[in-house]
Amino acid sequence: MSLRQMEYFLTVVEEASFTRAAELLHVTQPALSHQIKALERTVGGALLERLPRGVRLTPMGRAYLPHAERSVRSAAQARRAARAAAGAEGGELHIATVHAVAVGILPDVFARWRRAHPGVALVLHEYATPEALEEQLERGTADLAVGPPPAHWPGPVVPVGEEEIVLVVPFDDPLAGRASVHLRELADRPWVRCAMEPVVQGRPFLDLACGEAGFTPRTAVRTEHTSTAVRMAAAGVGVATAPAHVVRGAVGEDCAVLAVDPPWRRRLAVFSRVELTGATAVFTELLAGSGPPGPRTPTG
Length: 300
Prior knowledge:
Oligomer: single chain
Helix content: 40-55%
Largest sheet: 10 strands, mixed
Strand content: 15-25%
Shape: elongated
Number of strands: 14
Low-confidence stretches: 292-300
Mean pLDDT: 84
């Protein structure tokens, strides 16, 4: 089987149509059908079921699909790495991250990159959770990932600093004039919870932290994105947690920020499937040199 055949197969699946896939690939429909049939002969069975209107995957096709995606993405990643290995000049660099890092940390880093390496285009892939980030990087979606260091990762993992997790309240909140607060002081407060909240020891982080402080957090509203949770907290819906760089750098200064005593910090790392060379190594050095805001005391 060839890489071209796998690319043809993926295009047919994405378009659910041989006709539209042939148009996108700039080949004739008979030529496309011939390549797909040759691929099916190689794997030993039908991958696609031809329907009167469109196509759908067979059970064998569903099993084959993720491996084909991984192979095609790995080939594209190899081409980008080869072009960039001489010194981060030319081509594209695909970076995957979680939403909070994309909003709070990467804009300044990307701007510095563009000034230093205008010949290398950056492509950003954002995900809601660290688990989704790791899964997509493993599938070859990007050249490297920026986020919480994975617990079990076969490739390189390079620490690049920490992010401080803070509490967000309105300006007119009784606690707004303070620099920090003990979590138990918020036992009677409603909370704005975010779907991107990390899971620690099998529990959402806030549930675990509040439980250790002697109470169960009362949820006022649940949101999908960290930036939305911060806006809700600024409006007085409830207390929200967020990385400090999201509040101060991306969302704005229209709310009060409180540090938790003792502080909450989360480590950040760059990780990849393969050795960091060329553009990936240069980007990692740039990110580590920028340093996410906040203290860098090691955490467990």
